[in-house]
Amino acid sequence: MKYLHSIAYALLWIGGINWLLVAFNWNLVYMLLGSWPQVVMIVYILVGLSAVYTLFTHKEYCKYCTAGQAM
């Protein structure tokens, strides 16, 4: 499960950075994979699924949440 958590965490970083760049009208995922629209859609689906996964499993892996501290 730690491996899955690491992948989800990396995808959250990719998604977050991409959204920051979208705010400046620069979509990195589309720039890199724009010629393959199906792959772009798969990347967005994986980023979204990783967000849902992290939402439900965050407390299990977060060292602050497991110690009973607020974020």
Automatic annotation (TrEMBL):
<dbReference type="InterPro" id="IPR007211">
    <property type="entry name" value="DUF378"/>
</dbReference>
<protein>
    <recommendedName>
        <fullName>DUF378 domain-containing protein</fullName>
    </recommendedName>
</protein>
<feature type="transmembrane region" description="Helical">
    <location>
        <begin position="35"/>
        <end position="56"/>
    </location>
</feature>
<keyword id="KW-0472">Membrane</keyword>
<dbReference type="Pfam" id="PF04070">
    <property type="entry name" value="DUF378"/>
</dbReference>
<feature type="transmembrane region" description="Helical">
    <location>
        <begin position="7"/>
        <end position="29"/>
    </location>
</feature>
<keyword id="KW-0812">Transmembrane</keyword>
<keyword id="KW-1133">Transmembrane helix</keyword>
